[in-house]
Specification:
This protein is of the alpha+beta class and 545 residues long. The chain is built from 18 helices and 17 strands. Strands 3, 4, 5, 6 and 7 form a five-stranded antiparallel beta sheet that branches. Strand 6 and strand 7 form a beta hairpin. Helix 4 packs across helix 11, helix 4 runs antiparallel to helix 12 and helix 5 packs across helix 9. It is globular. The protein starts with 10 loop residues before the first helix and ends with a strand. Keywords: Isomerase, Rotamase. It comes from Marinicella sediminis. This is peptidylprolyl isomerase. It is an enzyme of class 5 (isomerase).
Length: 545
């Protein structure tokens, strides 16, 4: 939902306007004078909304009047939604306090010069980074249970393909068309590869390649492959000045992280936080869940707003509790920091918070007015859109992913050791992945046999998180990732089961997307029509000359 009014105003125009008129000077009013806007009020309103760009000043005045008119339709703002908006505005204030305290810690940091010099010497004495090769790959996997004859046929095929490739462009085309590796999605590009990254038997052969040189066909236990070196990338060596700058920043960051974490822990400890979770299978909205501290408490409704409105209707699962505890603790720390901040500093934040309540209330009312007029798109309109723009609806590459997670539970070293032990046994075939996931994974109930599911490439980050997504995109189908630690407190092992390349959607696949597009277009048109009608009814008179 776009804002109700433009979000920028030209500062010089605003300053000029306020300078040439006394603070009480009227700059606009509606037809019955029920809404009157002075230059002083407009300057204050604009400042709270950070409007500081170039546009017709009347459009910003219209934004003010529109907000006031929408608030008169408060029958479209339920008590529950009004309370939720105010709760979220309070979170805005707590975030301001959080940032304020962070700046206080930064201001008092005085890193020890001896520590900086020691870090400088560590960086200077590090082994220099080796040069890298920018590599491309074509990989053909042996069919399941391939016999020597089939392996020989595949080797001959790859050898013949090699003779047909004359340059990098030809290699990219062949990789895109024929490779079984996930790198085919990037025209065969593996990346900038340093010595030692590839398996030992490959590393010795591939790292000898010169720029614009293609390898001979290489056989492995999994298939046959070709590599192409685009160029060498020389190792960079930093000057002493840059090394000192890096050392200073790293020491500052380490000192800040330690002090900042210490401060947050102190706030949290002082609160004596206690969380009453819903029972497993119980819906949050129907529970008596609450957060209790020695200074305040959150009821079930407020806890639902904090954790996400959609959770209120879902059966509760105990595995939610660890990640949601982090969200609650972060909220508690910020709220404690707000309470510890002086009233004089908090006053400007409070004004901004009240302004935010007004703005979001008006936005909610406008959404309700639009929803009243909104109609479901006709099937014929959806079909016409699909037929007229069939190439616009593409199903992203689909990744079938499995994984198992070991909970850290306060002992990071032990969790990594256990995960490494399991990965070693899985790679050597001494244990079955599905059985191991069912036995050891912290998410065995959610993902039987470790199968997470089939996920579109555009949703990998949303479903898996950034760390797991990056690990997944580095491996090919049938391969396992290394150990991946996530900020949620788990050490993961991922397996990429399969990758399906992107393709054009069928109508049934595109139908829901097209429906949303048509609804979005209709909402935009309704917003324009409704806001225009509301403003025209005010018959605003401007006094800007």
């Amino acid at each position: 939902m776009n804002k109700l009014y433009l979000t920028i105003i030209f500062t010089l125009v605003l300053v000029a306007c306020t300078q040439r008129q006394p603070p009480s000077k009227l700059i606009a009013q509606n037809h019955d004078s029920s809404i009157m806007l002075s230059a002083e009020s407009f300057a204050h309103w604009s400042k709270l909304r950070n409007l500081n760009g170039s546009a017709n000043i009347k459009s910003y005045i219209n934004g003010y009047f529109l907000e006031q008119v929408l608030l008169q339709h408060n029958q479209h703002l339920s008590t529950d939604n009004a309370d939720k908006i105010r709760f979220q505005a309070q979170e805005f204030l707590y975030q301001k306090a959080f940032e304020h305290h962070k700046q206080l810690v930064i201001q008092v940091l005085e890193p020890d010069p001896l520590t900086i010099n020691a870090r400088f010497n560590e960086l200077k004495n590090r082994p220099k980074r080796p040069p890298k090769l920018r590599l491309y790959q074509i990989f053909k996997r042996y069919p399941p249970n391939a016999d020597p004859k089939h392996k020989r046929e595949l080797l001959d095929w790859m050898t013949d393909l090699r003779t047909q490739i004359n340059d990098l462009d030809g290699f990219k085309t062949a990789a895109t068309n024929y490779s079984d590796s996930q790198s085919r999605l990037q025209k065969g590009l593996i990346g900038n590869v340093p010595p030692g990254l590839l398996a030992a038997e490959l590393d010795e052969l591939v790292m000898q390649l010169q720029p614009n040189q293609m390898s001979e066909v290489i056989q492995s236990s999994h298939g046959v492959m070709l590599f192409y070196c685009e160029r060498h990338i020389s190792a960079s060596v930093l000057s002493d000045q840059k090394l000192m700058k890096r050392a200073t920043q790293q020491v500052k960051n380490k000192a800040f992280n330690a002090q900042w974490q210490f401060l947050q822990n102190n706030f949290l400890t002082a609160l004596k936080l206690n969380i009453k979770w819903p029972k497993t299978g119980e819906k949050l909205i129907d529970s008596e869940a609450q957060v209790i501290t020695n200074q305040w408490r959150l009821n079930t409704r407020e806890l639902g707003w904090l954790l996400g409105q959609n959770l209120r209707q879902k059966p509760w699962k105990s595995e939610f509790e660890q990640s949601h505890r982090q969200r609650i603790e972060a909220y508690a720390i910020k709220r404690a920091m707000f309470d510890a901040t002086g009233v004089d500093i908090r006053s400007s934040w409070v004004l901004a918070g009240e302004s935010l309540v007004t703005q979001r209330s008006a936005e909610h009312i406008l959404r309700q007015l639009i929803a009243k007029e909104l109609s479901e798109p006709h099937l014929k309109d959806i079909e016409d859109q699909f037929q007229n723009h069939p190439d616009s609806y593409v199903l992203p590459a689909q990744y079938t992913v499995s994984g198992l997670a070991i909970a850290i539970n306060g002992n990071r070293i032990l969790a990594h050791q256990k995960a490494a032990e399991l990965l070693h046994e899985i790679n050597h075939g001494s244990v079955d992945f599905a059985t191991t996931a069912n036995q050891y994974s912290a998410f065995a109930d959610r993902y039987p046999d470790g199968l997470i599911g089939t996920i579109g490439k555009n949703r990998l980050g949303q479903v898996l998180g950034i760390d797991l997504m990056r690990a997944l995109l580095r491996i090919d189908a049938g391969q396992y990732s290394g150990l991946v630690e996530t900020e949620q407190g788990y050490v993961w092992i991922l397996r990429l089961d399969d990758v399906q390349a992107n393709r054009l959607m069928t109508f049934s696949e595109a139908q829901g997307i097209i429906r949303k597009e048509l609804l979005a277009n209709q909402k935009s048109q309704l917003k324009t029509a409704i806001t225009t009608k509301l403003l025209q009814a005010q018959d605003i008179t401007y006094y800007l000359d």
